[in-house]
Amino acid sequence: MESISVYRSALGIDVCAERLDWHRLPERSRGEVANTPDGIQSLVADLRKVGVDIVVIEATGGLQRQVASALVAAGIAVAVINPRQVRDFARASGQLAKTDQIDAQVLALFGLRLQPQPRNLPDAAALELADKLARRSQLVEMSAAEKNRRHRASTAMKRSIDGHLAFLDQAIKTLDQDLDDTLRGSPAWAEKVALLEVVTGVGPQTLRRLLIDLPELGKLDRHGIAKLVGVAPLNRDSGTFRGKRAIWGGRVKVRNTLYMAALSASRFNVPLKAFFERLKAAGKPHKVALVAVARKLLTILNAMLRDTSAWNPKLVEKRA
After folding, report:
1. DSSP assignment of 74-88, as one string?
2. Which residues of the chain fall below pLDDT 70?
3. What is the pLDDT of residue 123?
4. For the chain, give me the number of helices (H) and strands (E)?
5. Which of 20, 250, 273, 308 to pair with 238, CA 20 to 30 A apart?
6. Own/partner pairs for 6-10, CB < 8 Å, 24+ apart?
7. What residue segments make up the domains of the chain, in order of their start?
8. d(CA 135, CA 141)
9. DSSP H/E element including 266
C-alpha cells in the first residue's frame, strides 16, 4: 500500500447545486458559500490563508467537479469519495442524522480517521469524453423506453415515436463518431486503441467504456484492477463458516460492459473460449464462468497496456 502523509486537519465539503457547506476539523469551524465561481474562489482564498491537509468531497454526479478542480489548481489536496463509503462511515460512527452541515462534518472526520489518498483529477479532455459517454448512455436509455412504449401505442402515436427514435439513433451515431474520432486522433489514447481493438470480444462500446471510465487500466496489478471494477470474488467467511464468494461493488457500468464483452469472448475468442469451457466442464455455473472470463479478459487487457504489448493468444495464461 502506498504510504501517505498523516493529515492533522481536514475540511469536508457537502456539495449541492446552490451552495457548498463546509466543516473544518479539528477546529470545528464551519460555514457555507455559494456554489458559484465567486463563492468557490472565496473558499479557495480562505483555505490558502488558514491551510488544510486534505479536503474531502463526495462524488455527486459531477456537481463536485468545479470546486474540486479549483482546489487542485490551487495546490490543495482533494479526495473525492464514493458516497456509499461516507454513509457507511457515518453509521459506524453513530451518526444517523443527515443534514448538509452534518454531512460536511462527517466528511472532515472521514479525512482524519481514514486518511484517504488525494487523487489526480482528470483533465478537461477526459472530462469531456466522460460527459459524452454518459450522454450516450442516456440516449440509449431513452431509445429503449420509446421502443417499449411503441408496443402499446396507437398507430398515430407510433408515427410520433418512430420520429423520436430516428432522432435518437442519429444522435447516438453522432456521439459514437465523435468519441471514436477523439480517441483515435489523440496521442494519449490512439496507442491504447490500437492495442486493445484487435482482441476478439472487445468491440467499440467496450473500448470506449474501458478507456474513458477506467483510466487506471494498465496502471494497477491484476488484483487491484479486478477489485476496482468489481469482478474479484469477495470472501464471506466467519469462524468455521465458509460463505459463497460473490462479486460486489466496483464500477457498475464498466463491469456490465465487460460482462457483455465476456459473452462474445466466451464464444469467439479461442483461448478465452477454451477457458470458459474448462470452467463449465468443472461444474461451474454458467454465470460464474462468464464472470471469470470477464475477469480474465480484464487482466489481459490491463497487462497489455501495462507492458505496451500486442495481443498474443499463446501468452493469455501467463498474462492472466
Report:
1. TT--EEEE-HHHHHH
2. 1-5, 234-249, 317-320
3. 78
4. 13, 7
5. 250
6. 6/115, 7/53, 7/54, 7/111, 7/112, 7/115, 8/53, 8/112, 9/51, 9/52, 9/53, 9/54, 9/112, 10/52, 10/53, 10/54, 10/55, 10/56, 10/107, 10/108, 10/109, 10/110, 10/111, 10/112
7. 10-114, 124-185, 204-319
8. 10
9. helix 252-268
Here the cell at position 181 is 474520432
Task: At 304, list the grid cell.
Answer: 497489455
Give phi and psi for 18, each to the nearest 5: -95, -35
37, three cell numbers: 465561481
What is 10-114's CATH number, 3.30.420.40, 3.90.550.60, 3.40.1650.10, 1.25.40.10?
3.30.420.40
The three cell numbers of residue 278 are 474448462
Q: How far is residue 18 from each of residues 33, 35, 37, 200, measured CA to CA in Å?
A: 9, 5, 12, 47
Q: For residues 70 and 38, what is the distance between their CA atoms, to the nearest angstrom? A: 11
* Spatial separation of the C-alpha atoms in residues 57 and 75, rounded to whole Å: 16
- Cis geometry, peptide bond prior to residue 26 (ω within 30 degrees of 0): yes
Per-residue pLDDT tens digits for 162-189: 999 999 999 999 999 999 999 999 888 9
Residues in contact with 127: Cβ distance below 8 Å, sequence separation at least 6, in sequence order: 65
